[in-house]
Prior knowledge:
Elements: H1 2-6, H2 11-42, H3 60-63, H4 70-76, H5 82-88, E1 93-95, E2 104-109, E3 112-117, H6 126-144, E4 153-158, E5 167-169, E6 172-173, E7 187-189, H7 206-218, E8 235-242, H8 254-262, E9 268-272, H9 280-285, E10 299-303, H10 314-317, E11 323-326, E12 331-332, E13 341-343, H11 344-347, H12 350-353, H13 362-368, E14 379-381, H14 389-398, H15 400-416, H16 422-439, E15 440-442, E16 451-452, H17 453-456
Parallel strand pairs: 1-15, 4-5, 5-7, 8-9, 8-10, 10-11, 11-14, 13-14
Antiparallel strand pairs: 2-3, 2-4, 3-16, 6-12
The structure holds 2-acetamido-2-deoxy-beta-D-glucopyranose (4 copies).
Residues 227-228 line the site of one 2-acetamido-2-deoxy-beta-D-glucopyranose.
Amino acid sequence: MGESKRKPKPRPRRCLRQLTFVVGVVLVVYCLLFVYNAPDANYGTTSWSPLRKTSTKLTPELLNNLSLGEDECKAAFPGLTKEIDDTVSKGPFTIKPSGDLGPLQGRIKDGQLYILHAQRRNDLSQDMLNARTASLHQLYRAILTSPSPLPDTIFTLNTGDAPFGTALQYSRAADPLIGSKDPNARSFLIPHFSFWSWPLPFVGSISSSSAQINALESSYLPNASHPNASWHNKISRAVWRGTAWYNSVHSPRLRQNLLQVTKEKPWADVQVLNWTISSSDTKQKGAVNAIPISEFCRYKYIIHTEGVAYSGRFSFTQMCKSVVITPPILWMMHTTHLVKPVYSGYLLGRDKRDKKGWEPAKRAMRGWALGYKKEEANMVFVEGDWSDLEETVEWLEKHPDVAEGIARRQREVVVGGGYHSPAAEACYWRAAIRGWASVMRTEGEWEELGVPFEAFSLSLDMGQ
Ligand SMILES: *[C@@H]1O[C@H](CO)[C@@H](O)[C@H](O)[C@H]1NC(C)=O
Ligand SMILES: *[C@@H]1O[C@H](CO)[C@@H](O)[C@H](O)[C@H]1NC(C)=O
Ligand SMILES: *[C@@H]1O[C@H](CO)[C@@H](O)[C@H](O)[C@H]1NC(C)=O
Ligand SMILES: *[C@@H]1O[C@H](CO)[C@@H](O)[C@H](O)[C@H]1NC(C)=O
């Protein structure tokens, strides 16, 4: 019995064990490496890259040219019409006459614009009327400057804050599950009315702000007389101005939470707008603590909040060389797809540290997939309750080159790519009309022509 115990083990078996051990070690090392790299491997799952470079030289003449042809538009602004193309790819849909209480409907025929139904002016607030007037003029301008005829069509235009039903409108839900029940619903995104004008104190139009922002940003670029000018001289604080109560049903405490986490924090310049009007002078400026929209670009970090739906300020802050920090965006506007977000959880290394693994909220994932590497990103998405805002700003302050890169890429894509230029806006409107007309079908009885826009624009109520 004892003898058999002392019997040497057969060699092949020992070899096998050693081999198993080595293979095991290799597997463990491989897995560790793989896990370590996993977040990077998951990045960039969105299928479209907004950084595809144009071969067209984007001169000031070209960017102000409202009459670029369809092919010239495509070559100059690659990916500009992504939202339209996606909506067209959903296939045909039908519209019915909305009547005088529904959204505005109009007809384009032989290059002329007619209004078929519209809410009466008296039924609209001044803000709603301004939005509608601006958008109709934008459409009219794009028709008049078209180098080739646009197709005849009938359209529905919703200039309200929230997307609704099937229309040309300012935003759509990023989450495809929101409002997905109606198979006939289509949002054809249009440029915000601020591309025409936004008559708010300290706002104005995209093009006037764009010029102001260009001047401001160039003051942070070194030249012979100011060799030390630099992005790093921007204000190292996160800025926000707004009203506390303006929240969405999807994130009802968004603004209150923001005020809480930034209260008395040296890294934050977050203030509720104070509309106290103490003299005729402040009346001109609106809120006493407001700052002109271009002046937001003086800050390294801009906190973005959406409201009931999209926020019109977004198109402005997209032009700054600043790091926009926001919870995952819920409402897409016509160039929101240029955003390449990096999630704060990835910046802060949560996915490696936290045993349970960190991941973005499901709703964000459906709209935005997994985000981008910090070397590719042009915006930062933080937790929806702002709980990691402070850590994120601290992290960016400790990694100023990463912060500068995120800020630089935003301005490079949006402004450098000319996506908010007058030329791109006209290109976009015409593409939206062509896209809409290609899949729109009508039902019901329609008026032959309606009121010519030229008459409608002279304060004529429908039918008067
Ligand atoms: C604008 O573009 C069109 C189409 O390329 C061209 O024919 C026209 O000359 C351009 N206008 C200006 C002012 O550059
Ligand atoms: C250099 O930059 C400063 C600060 O922005 C500006 O005032 C000045 O006009 C610039 N000088 C030249 C030669 O561009
Ligand atoms: C720019 O920075 C350098 C190095 O910090 C310094 O020596 C120089 O005086 C600065 N120049 C100006 C014009 O401020
Ligand atoms: C708002 O501004 C007015 C005038 O400057 C000031 O008297 C008032 O205290 C401010 N209110 C708040 C809540 O800061």
